[in-house]
C-alpha cells in the first residue's frame, strides 16, 4: 500500500493544500476546527458509497459524489456540473481501506445469490449483470486506484486542484496518500 500521511496538526497538511478548501476539509474533519457558516459549496468530494464513513464538515461546504471505490469514471457529468455550475475549483478524492470494490470476483457468488434471494432476480440475469459490470467497477487496490483517478482527473480538469486522500475506517481519520512524483 502507498504511504499515508497522517494529519494531526495544521503543519502536517502539505503546504500546497493549506489555505485551500482541501486543507479546510482536513481541519474540519481531523482537527475539529469549529464549523464555519458556509453559504456556497467550496469543494467537490468523491468518496465511496460504503456505509462506514461520514465527514465532519459544515452544511453547504461540499458537493459529494458517492460511488463504489470513489470511482468517478462514470460520474463525469456530475463532476463537470460541480465545476461548471457549482464553481468549485478543488476536488478531494477519498478512498478507504477494506473497500468492497477490491477483488469483486471473490464476492461473485454472494452478489448473485443476494440478487436472487433479496431482489427476486433470475439467476441468469444476475450472473450476466455481475459479469458485465464487475470489470467496470473493480478498483484493484484502494490507494493505487485513487492515485490513478487523481492523475486522470488532473488531465481532464487542468485548472482544478485535486488531492488523493484516504479514510481509515479503523480511526475515522483522513490521510493524504503520498504521491511519489519523482521516484517509483
Ligand atoms: Zn469502498
How would you briefly describe this protein structure?
The chain has helices at residues 21-31, 76-84, 108-119, 123-137, 142-156, and strands at 4-6, 43-47, 62-66, 90-96, 161-168, 173-177. Helix 3 (108-119) packs across helix 4.
Identify the notable features of this structure and list them briefly:
6-stranded mixed beta sheet; 184 residues; binds zinc ion; alpha/beta; 5 helices
Task: Give the CA-CA distance, first to last residue.
Answer: 13 Å
Write down how many β-strands occur, each being a DSSP E stretch of 2 or more residues.
6
Spans where pLDDT lies below 50 across 5 or more residues? none
* Mean pLDDT, all residues: 96
Largest sheet: 6 strands, mixed
The percentage of residues in β strands lies in 15-25%
Reading the helices and strands in chain order gives EHEEHEHHHEE
Query: So how many helices?
Result: 5
| Structural class determined from secondary elements | alpha/beta
Q: Give the spatial strand order of the biggest sheet.
A: 1-6-5-4-2-3
Radius of gyration: 18 Å
The outline comes out as globular
Bound molecules: zinc ion
- Helical residue percent band: 25-40%
Amino acid at each position: 500500500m502507498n504511504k499515508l500521511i497522517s494529519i494531526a496538526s495544521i503543519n502536517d497538511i502539505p503546504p500546497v493544500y493549506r489555505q485551500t478548501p482541501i486543507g479546510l476539509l482536513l481541519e474540519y474533519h481531523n482537527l475539529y476546527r469549529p464549523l464555519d457558516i458556509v453559504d456556497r459549496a467550496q469543494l467537490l468530494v468523491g468518496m465511496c458509497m460504503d456505509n462506514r464513513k461520514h465527514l465532519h464538515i459544515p452544511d453547504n461546504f461540499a458537493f459529494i459524489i458517492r460511488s463504489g471505490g470513489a470511482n468517478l469514471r462514470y460520474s463525469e457529468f456530475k463532476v463537470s456540473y460541480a465545476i461548471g455550475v457549482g464553481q468549485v475549483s478543488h476536488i478531494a478524492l477519498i478512498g478507504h481501506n477494506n473497500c468492497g470494490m477490491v477483488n469483486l470476483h471473490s464476492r461473485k457468488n454472494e452478489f448473485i445469490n443476494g440478487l436472487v434471494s433479496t431482489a427476486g432476480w433470475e439467476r441468469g440475469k444476475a450472473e450476466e449483470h455481475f459479469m458485465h459490470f464487475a470489470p467496470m467497477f473493480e478498483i484493484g487496490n484502494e490507494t493505487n486506484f485513487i492515485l490513478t483517478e487523481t492523475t486522470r482527473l488532473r488531465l481532464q480538469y487542468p485548472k482544478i486542484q485535486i488531492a488523493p486522500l484516504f479514510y481509515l475506517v479503523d480511526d475515522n481519520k483522513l490521510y493524504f496518500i503520498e504521491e511519489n512524483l519523482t521516484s517509483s
